[in-house]
Automatic annotation (TrEMBL):
Pfam families: Glycos_transf_2 (PF00535). Residues 9-169 form the Glycosyltransferase 2-like domain. InterPro entries: Glyco_trans_2-like (IPR001173), Glycosyltransferase_2 (IPR050256), Nucleotide-diphossugar_trans (IPR029044). One of its GO terms (molecular function) is transferase activity. Keywords: Transferase. Signal peptide: none annotated. This is Glycosyl transferase family 2. SUPFAM superfamilies: Nucleotide-diphospho-sugar transferases (SSF53448). The keyword Transferase applies.
Length: 248
C-alpha cells in the first residue's frame, strides 16, 4: 500500500508462459498488494504457471475474448478486490515493472488520476526495436487524435497504464470493444470525463516472445483509432450521443 491505498497489478495474458515469471519477479511487492492474471484461453500453460509462481488471483476464460475482453475481466476483479490504484502490465516483459513505483506514487499523491508509460517520450521505442512502420503510424495517429481530442499526449497506444479506482468506476469500459481498440476507446472515455493524464518515459523491448499484432491487425486498429477520434469529436464538440461516453 501507499498511504493506505491498495495497489493492484493486472496482467492480461495470452500464451505468456515464456516471459511471465521474469515479469512477475520484477514487480515491486513492497507496495503492490495483489496481482491478478487473466488468461484469455491460452494454448500454453500460462494459467498453471501463474498459480505455481504464486499469483493468487488467476482467471481463465473458457473461450478467447480478445485483448479488450481480457482487460474488462482484469479491471472488474481489481475493483472487486478493493484496489485503489490499478496498474495494467503486459506479462510479455515488453514493459519494465520497475516503473510501477513511479506510476503508483503519482496517483497515490493525488497529482494525476491516470499515468501512461510512454515509449515515445525520449527514444525508448526505436532503441527498443519498434518497427519503423509502427513508429511512423504511432506518430501520425497520435497527431490526428491530439488535434481532434484537443490533447497533448505523446502517444495513445502504450499498453502500460495506471488508473485510480475513481477513474475505473466512472467510465463505461464494459461498452468498449473486446479487441485491441479497447485501449484507445478507454483513453477517449477518460479524456471525455475531463481527467488529466500524466506520462512518464518508458523503455520498451521488442523480441520474439513479446506480443505484437501483425500488419493486418495493425491496419484494423489504425482505422478504429480514427473512428474513435471522430466519435469523440462529434460527442464533445457537437453533443452527438454515443454509448462510449455514458457514465456508470
Amino acid at each position: 500500500m501507499i498511504d493506505n491505498q491498495k495497489i493492484v497489478v493486472v496482467l492480461p495474458a495470452y500464451n505468456a508462459s515464456k516471459t511471465l515469471e521474469k515479469t512477475y519477479n520484477e514487480i515491486p511487492f513492497d507496495i503492490v498488494d495483489e496481482v491478478i492474471l487473466v488468461d484469455d484461453s491460452s494454448t500454453d500453460n500460462t494459467a498453471d504457471l501463474a498459480a505455481n509462481i504464486g499469483i493468487k488471483h488467476v482467471i481463465k476464460h473458457p473461450k478467447n475474448r480478445g485483448y479488450g475482453g481480457n482487460q474488462k475481466s482484469c479491471y472488474n476483479k481489481a475493483l472487486e478486490l478493493g484496489g485503489d490504484i490499478v496498474i495494467m502490465l503486459h506479462p510479455d516483459y515488453q514493459y519494465t515493472p520497475k516503473l510501477i513505483h513511479s506510476m503508483s506514487y503519482v496517483i497515490a499523491n493525488g497529482v494525476y488520476e491516470v499515468v501512461l508509460g510512454s515509449r515515445i517520450l525520449g527514444k525508448g521505442a526505436l532503441r527498443g526495436g519498434m518497427p519503423i512502420y509502427k513508429y511512423i503510424a504511432n506518430r501520425c495517429l497520435t497527431l490526428f487524435q491530439n488535434i481532434l481530442m484537443r490533447q497533448k499526449l505523446s502517444e495513445y497506444h502504450t499498453g502500460y497504464r495506471a488508473f485510480s479506482a475513481k477513474v475505473l468506476n466512472s467510465i463505461s469500459y464494459e461498452n468498449n470493444s473486446d479487441d485491441f481498440i479497447f485501449d484507445n476507446q478507454m483513453l477517449a472515455q477518460i479524456c471525455y470525463q475531463g481527467y488529466q493524464i500524466a506520462e512518464i518515459t518508458c523503455p520498451t523491448k521488442y523480441f520474439e516472445e513479446a506480443s505484437s499484432i501483425n500488419l493486418k491487425r495493425s491496419s484494423i486498429y489504425g482505422l478504429g483509432v480514427l473512428k474513435t477520434s471522430v466519435i469523440y469529436f462529434l460527442a464533445k464538440t457537437l453533443g452527438v450521443k454515443n454509448n462510449l461516453f455514458k457514465t456508470k
